[in-house]
Structures
1.
Amino acid sequence: MACIQGYTEVVKLLLEYKADVNVTDENELTPLCNASIPGHTEIVKLLLEHGVANVDHTDKDNDTPLGMACVKGSTQVVELLLKHGANVNHINKQIRTPLVMACIAGHTEIVELLLEHGADFNVADDDNDAPLGIACHQGHTEIVELLLKHGADLSHTNTKECTPFAMACIGGSKEAVELLLKKGGVDVNVTDGLKNTPLGTACLRGYTQVAELLLKHGVANINHTNIQKRTPLGMACIEGYTEVVKLLLEYKADVNVTDENEVRDTPLGMACVKGCKEVVELLLKHGAKVNHTNINGHTPLVMACKRGRKEVVELLLKQDGVDVNATDERNNTPLGIACIKGHTEIVKLLLKQDKNNIKNTNTKTPTGIPLCMARAKGQPKRVDINHKNAENRTPLGSACHEGRTEIVKLLLEQDGVNVNATDKDSCTALQIAFMKQHTEIFELLLKHKGVDVNVTDKDNRTPLGIACHEGRTEIVKLLLEQDRVCVNATDKDSHTALQIAFEKQPQKQHTEIVELLLKHKGVDVNVTDKDNLTILHSACERGHTETVELLMKREDIDVTKCNKDGLNALDIAVERGKKDAAMAIVKSDKWKDALRNYKVEDTSDKSFDKKKGGRFRRMWCCNRKGNREANKQFITPMRRLIKKMPDVAKVVFENCCTEDNPPDHPDHEITFNYEFLDDFDLNHMTTKNWHPPLEYSSENHCLNILADSPSADLLKHPLAATLLDQKWNKIGRIVYYTNLFFYFLFVILLTSFALTVHPPNSNICMEVFGNDNETSIDCFTEERFVSQIYIPIASICLIVYSAILIIREVFQLVLFRKEYLTSPVNYIEVLLFIFTIIFSSVRSNQCYCTHLWQWQVGVIAVFLSWITLIFSIRKLPVVGIYVVMFIKIFNNFIKVVVLALLLISAFAVPFYMMFYDPQDRAEGIRTPFITPWRTTVKAITMTVGELDMDSLLRQNNQVNAPDVQYPVVSFSLIIVFVILMPILFLNLLIGLAVGDTDEIQKSADTYRLTLR
């Protein structure tokens, strides 16, 4: 540290204390090295006197103290080291001797010392640069003189094949060049590895004085080209060295020599790239070709425009014959290039060339010469403002693509600009600006009167359609403000802008666009696409309620339009289950038009031709004219609503009821419109687009559909109820009461017959069935003469009536099949009529006695007849509702009958086991527990509270016994039975029967109306 800082006294002190003078630090530097670098002569002397082991010790870079001292220029230190035997030709890692390092640093005295001590002046470094070449390059003239005196080699070349003279030119040292020229023996035309002469090297670096020296000394070829075929003039132009260019031109340098690099430019082209106006001006004055094209097809003007060299462009445009429409490799003209690059000032310059001339390149000059020929004949230059490049874009299109707002303004001010020219993607400038989201440019174009705002792209979409597709709300607003915009133009899918925007919902921006379009007065909301769908259809299909509501507010909306399947918007909403959309339609002012749609489907082939029953029915009922109409399924929105959306159907019902005055007004009236509920007979209707009168199947009537649907409660709505009453009073009541009257007569006849005919256990029947010798038996006494006449007549009437009704049931089965089989009443009626025939078939020769089995069949027939009568009075206005309620309660009971059977079985079997007494059976005593069946019946009667404890606890053979058998189990079983059955289970049944009486009554009333 003391050696580095130059603390001589400290060094002396340390040496007195025997400090090690040969110790090295982390960089392998000894104290001598550290003292030599900054040039502390006294310390170096002290160290050398105190036994430095190796004066040529090297550090990690293989530098010796002598080399380090040469770099820093410490002459005295160098002198001391040389006296102590330092190696004057030591080479470090860079293959540099101390002499080379002194030459680089320019320390003349040290160079002189080294030479005096035998330094080798021809040893080269790793670049093969000898000391003389290095000194020439650095411009150290005195060192050059020293080396020349000692005989340095002037012809030595480095790795780049540069001689010392070439190195002097590279360094730009005029003095060194003059010295070498005076010395003589140098070749001024020598070339290096790149075939550059000293003149070319000097021009490349802008050394005007060196170049002048060389030219005065007699350069053999001023137009010599290097390996790139580039002349000194070209190299000077590349860097924009004006003075060098001026000098070369004075010596008649060729201004049009082209190089052979990647682009093959002339000096003028190179100067244009650099943007040096003075150089360009000099070249043009000396005859440079203004329209020369390089390998890329670029003229100087094209290159100047690419680099944005305004002054150069201005200068070139002043030249006669300059081609202002020359193109580059992408077929861009200078104007197109300037537009792409955004060089606004250059665009202005180019546009001035065409300001007072014709508007396009296809017209002729006033002299009749085509424009393309006019340039060659000196006519005024005209910029082709509509020239198209490789992308088929005009300058305006390119400016829009790159977002050059100011340039677009300039171009739009020009006469003849084609604002509607399309590129290779069939996009105009307006569409390009939109797609690149250059809103300001888009606004500028919209303001131009010549812009076609309805131009279409490859998908046949207008800018408005594209904006709607992309969700560009602000653009849509701008376009809708234009009177010229066609808001109803369709794309290749026949979608308008409104439909396109709707397709992209539910994104927020697209919803806003839909609202904007719907508010526009010119939008046609009834346009259909290729699937014959309007936007209302699509909105209903997707359930976009807000859009449906907006559409329904428009007066021009057509709700009657149908898609290819014959469905209008309301039909579609119902079929897709979009309740809110359907509700929006029926709540609008156009609800009637929406409901006036119909579809007729022929069901004859589907229902009647597959089975024999179907063919039979056709033979029986379809031979008359008009029966084909009866086989047609009539479908309307009202029917769809009834089946699938009762809440919406209810709103329609409300719409069909019109009140003239408030309910409390004395003249309060309600007018009912049955057009949609009773739509088969519309002879009185004059509404257009509504079906003609049709023959129909009653099953397809709205009331029948309503009765069979989950929305049957709507039958109680005043609209349905009044219509039903009208039809009931007109036809249904007569038919019903007639049938009920005849059936009632049948029941009375059957009952009286059963009471009149002889039972099998009567005396006369027992005598008849026990008469084996065929003796004459008086069947009827005088007091039973009436019975003798009545029984055969009643029997015949019952059989005939039952047979007729059985035939009716068969026809019903054929007609309705599955529907018939699902009704339990039909099974009861069939059994009733069959059993009635069996029961009524008694013979006179047996005194009209019934057999035992026949009598039991008769009992069942009588029972079923009265049960059927109960079912028949369900439609009566007062009694009917209670019959229905009874049936519903019975249905509730059936749901728990399995539980009842299991509970009864759970107690009946143990009761039989506990209370059965074999002695009672032996003695013929009939107790409740003598058989399992009697035990089960007993358990059932006990369930309803008939416990009869005597029959339970007092058996005949245990009269004197203190208690029953198995008392613990018996009493426990009875207690559990009482708790579970008469108390809990019976209360459960009562709760099911009366727990929801109000609801049962409501549903019963609805069901009664359904039966009507």
Note: Residues 728-771+784-875 form one domain.
2.
Amino acid sequence: MDMQTLPTVVLGTTGASADDVIAVARGNARVELSEQAVEALAAGRKIVDDLAARPEPVYGVSTGFGALATRHIGPELRAQLQRNIVRSHAAGMGPRVEREVVRALQFLRLKTVASGHTGVRPEVAQTMADVLNAGIVPVVHEYGSLGCSGDLAPLSHCALTLMGEGEAEGPDGTVRPAGELLAAAGIKPVELREKEGLALLNGTDGMLGMLVMALADLARLQTSADITAALTLEALLGSAKVLAPELQAVRPHPGQAASAANMLKVLEGSGLTGHHQDDAPRVQDAYSVRCAPQVAGAGRDTAAHARTVAERELAAAVDNPIVLRDGRVESNGNFHGAPVAYVLDFLAIAAADLASISERRTDRLLDKNRSHGLPAFLAADPGVDSGLMIAQYTQAALVSDLKRLAVPASADSIPSSAMQEDHVSMGWSAARKLRTAVDNLTRVIAIELYAATRALELRSGLVPAPASAAVIAAVREAGVEGPGGDRFLAPDLAAADAFVRTGALVAAAESVTGPLA
């Protein structure tokens, strides 16, 4: 995309929105500082400069950091102090973190800086925006953050790039020395002054960025799961009566009502629902079918709570010490990642359970003893053909991994900094495992989609709902083959995964139902 056509996000002093984060992280939107932000930056910096000129020590301005905060640092060493904290804290190890995560990290740190509460000079903030707009992405590593005193190592690697040191990825995707990339973009490296090094690396920006993106992905997946649950209910000749609004109203969880309403929309006009077989009469469907709205809805309500936490964080200025409008610079504990870490872990639990119930529905479609007339494993010639037997194995392996990923990271704490930082959030770790969980959940839903659409096509003589028919047509158009003899299955599963991941599943259903929740 031509740089001139990219959207622009303007940062003021009151934070940013989730849409802003997504636009910058994933859409490469440009960033500008508002006039209000520049004024707030200048006012905050004046407070720091005034305090720096005084003889008494002020944490982060004229002292060491963490357990070394007892040492007073004279004016002649303060620039070196700020450089040193960035260099020493850029201690990450392991694989590189994804480009979109680092862009979110850069943007959210700039969001806090733009508030004027950090004491960073306007020119440093402008350089942060220039680096983002130039498409320069610092090399940030998987390990190094404990989620307390902020995402220290990840943010330090970002600050190192501003200084023209370390490595970064250029707009062409090539990793080069950061100084070379800045020079090529015409950006002058920053020379940090009092408090600025600390201010650039003392925030919960990495875990928050990953939370915002996970919420966007989960919103799509929750709708996708409602669609696949409806397709499976239909393929199993289940009853849609349990989805009635009056039944949801007597247990008024909003997420449950939304999921049930989605399923009803998808199933409208179905010729399969309620056709219980004479040789296997059913009074009720199995839990994995009948309770789909309750489980998916609980996940929706979990996401709603997490979204509230994210919105509060997006409106926050997280730094220590913080510059107050009345001229004080005060130490605080707002950098602790517990609020974000808890909801990241909570979402991983919800993702695991949504995957678990999806896998149980898939298994029911494949079991001839429970599928009410469908062939074993949806195979063309069971015994000669194995059908989708091993697709369910893959799904089960993914679900098992999701259950391991649901173990909370935030319940752990390893003291650091000579026991000064004796309780940490592990929020970065919670965010990293949630990203994997969301990725795996996508694959699990894709496998249910693959099985359910095949099962519906095997119900000869019965007409699926118009929305179901639209999904089947779209998924076949996307390269996912229908019923037939055994073939190389991995390409079909990959195509189904892409169909869910890109939002094509939701779009296909909504082409008939209209907007789904």
Note: The chain is about 55% helix and 5% strand.
3.
Amino acid sequence: MDAPLNLLIIEDTLADFLLVERHLRKDGLDAHCRQVANSADLVADLTDMNWDAVLSDYNVPGMEFTESLALVRSVLPDVPVILVSGTVGEENAVGLLKLGVTDFLLKENLTRLVPAIRRAQRDAAELRARHAAEQALREKSQLLLEMSALAHIGGWEYDPATGRCSWTEEVARIHEVSPSADTSIAFFFSFFHGEWRLKIETVLSQAIKYGKPFDLELEIVTAKGNRKWVRMVFAPTSDGGSVVKIRGSTQDITDRKRGEIMMFNQKERAEVTLHSIGDAVITTDAQGIIDYLNPVAQQLTGWSMEGAINKSLMDVLNIVDKNNKLPLPNPILPALSEGTISHLPVDCLLIRQDGRYSEIENSTAPIRSRDGSIIGAVLVFRDVTASREITAKIAYQAMHDALTGLPNRILALDRLQQAIGAALREGTCVGVLFLDLDRFKNINDSLGHSSGDYILEQVAARLLSVTRATDTVSRQGGDEFMIIMPSASHQVHFADLATKILDAVSAPYFVKQQELSLTISIGISMYPNDGSDASTLIKNADAAMYHAKEAGCDNYQFYATEMNSKAAKRLLFEVQLRHAVVRQEFVVYYQPKVDTADRKLIGAEALIRWNHPDLGLLTPANFIAIAEDSGLIVSIGQWVTEEVCRQNQAWLQHGHACVPISVNLSAIQFRNKSLVDSLRILLEETGLPPRLLELELTESVIMQGSETVIGTLQRLKQLGINLSIDDFGTGYSSLSYLKRFPIDTLKIDQSFVWDIAHDESNAAIIKAIISMAHSLKMSVIAEGVETQEQLAFLEAHQCDAIQGYYFSQPVPAMKFEEMLKVQRTLH
């Protein structure tokens, strides 16, 4: 049975209140009614009970109906309010209905009261249900908005007809713009760049044209310049076959996308790493069954991934001991059983599937799960065949001479120490033979280093041919060799070997279709007579070798105690020579050159002198050979050139009529790659005109004929420097060579001039040189002219210039300056 209704009746007349109650009971409505006759009771009663309906008279003294209605509606918004009155017209009633009155009845027609109440109840119930539904919808919408915000999803709509967009706050937040920002499609597209701009324009165009929905992921650049990834899902809405709207959603998937990219990159890096590293990688499960091989492992074992998967490791990795070829134990057993890292033995061979061998080295480690249990093993190994061959080769090269293949000084020293130890135990002798080729530098300078290297190889072969298998033949460097002869019993054995060496080395050599002769000087020291340790024996053999050279070369000398004093003196001389460079103890002398026809001074040759603090003024014959051997010739030659340029420029500034000064250039200086640049800088710094500098080069320097030599000569000529060939006629020059060189002057060697009056051959050579030079547009100067007879011959055969003691010895700078002042004729 339904519960009685609670009715609040606003009525000032009790009779009318009872009339309403009577009609309600009459029509069978079970109701609990309460009368309210004033505003105060109305305020109190509105919240006193859950009212099902409010019945109100229009005219209640002290109460304005519209105010009462507003109060009721504010407190009971969903409760029906039925106006029961006898004084309100229909027009007023309609207005009241608009203010919130549910229904209107006249007091004289209360038969409609109960139906009106029931109808109002139904309407109120429907209203409440609608309000509840609307509230639920609002709550769901709010929840959806909150969930969308949490999921970074926003909605948007595009109208193709107007080109305008609308979007939710979440879309605005994703794009980092104000919700009220420009809503044009152009503004919408502005967040996409490059390929993404083209992509969104294309799919929107297809959606409009074909009504096609899309679901795609793109990168945007927000209004604040931040890069984000979004997922856009949209579908067109059609009307009559035409797309009128495109509705979609935008979701911020930046975090997910970055995570995916990171995971992909990590996986890709792992894949690329395993596929690109030089090491082979095999992984197994806990039972040692293979589950992965990288490409290098497949290549080294000869097994494919498909063929090796699910096989036992030892079926694929066939490893044996290098020395005895016996199988080695499974390398992953320590990893699987003990969880330890282990390595294969050093001498380990892998037998590939095709039967070939490779030397390998490896390490194995366990693979663990998160709980720490062993779930497999990884084996990493590499082919070290080539690297071990290289290591062996490097070790060989470190102990052997690259050119001849002979033991070098390091290995020879070790062999000598071993031989001394054996001789000490056995009571025998050890001989050390120190060898140096005589005048080998001339071959290098005249024929080039390639020819010199060929000679050294030939010498090495000849030394091996006359020594025993137990002897050690080594190259010490340059043209120096050393032979260690162990287990000898007498000095005569060393003498016999030295004699064989002299004979073998002196046999002819054929280089570039030329026959060459070569000799060698040998110094011999013996253990235990000449020293008890390796360094002493080598030092003493070296001293004996220098004694052999002083004795005329092409011989051997046994060490004697006094030899060390000579070697010490030579070493002291070299030290003093080094100090001379630093202390500027050198001076330049100038030997005039004169014109043959009028005897006028036309130039001079700069000749160095060493003002030795103890020995006085020394000529080059006393120290140039040592300077060349020690490498000091470069710094000395540079000093001479600088001094000549400085001095000649000083004479020029003093107003003297200066002449070209020639400087001798050594082979080492000429081969210096910075020669041309350094000379250009020197001329610029001193201000000397290049025509006042002449360079004299020996035939041996330029007769190598290489393009490098020709290029250097041409660059020197481009500077404006004169070029001269010194000591011409003593080398291997030919007309075909000379015409390739930009040479200004040929200088006839004094050895041809000395005997010019009595040696027809020398006279013929001089005439030929003069004729050849003039045909090549070169001038000719003869050096070493000391007699009137020599001068007459040279003048008769049109030699252009003369240099020698007949006119002047080399003079110091001050005296040569006097010659320049008067420009005198020399007689």
Note: The domain at 579-822 is CATH 3.20.20.450 (TIM Barrel).
